[in-house]
Amino acid sequence: MTENKVAIIMGSQSDWPTMEHAANMLDDLDIAYEARIVSAHRTPERMYEFAKSAKDDGFAVIIAGAGGAAHLPGMTAALTPLPVFGVPIQSKALSGQDSLLSIVQMPAGIPVGTLAIGKAGAINAALLAAAVLAITDEELADRLNDWRDANSARVAQYPSSES
Ligand code: RP5
Question: Complex ipTM above 0.85?
Fold first, then answer.
């Protein structure tokens, strides 16, 4: 088990079906994480306390999922020196384009690494977190390489009509 911990935070319980994909990916790579609901709008004090203490609490990377007017990743990034990867949740009203633009358009000075909308973004956020941790963790680097090899091996050479 990799000791460096990843924090998966999200603005709402309704984000979990998306963010669970990040958690599952971290499980597959045997990376320790904690998942928490931390809303920039509804629980701003919780967000502040989490972000200010995240580094001292032993987290190394933060994955933050939010939808709509998605301030959580940017606000969190403003409060911690840790790398923050933002996952735009696929909102009902605008299919996640609101989430994406809210997260990706950070003014210069406070970066948020923004992933794709929805499930793909959640999975890739976990893989990106793994890649960061793997820089200083050779065993994790091997597991990540194995996962990538297996991912390649799952791609058939030829298309099939059978589902
Ligand atoms: C955001 O508002 C959350 O990240 C969520 O994606 C969105 C809607 O939240 P709920 O109304 O479903 O709780 O803060």
Answer: yes
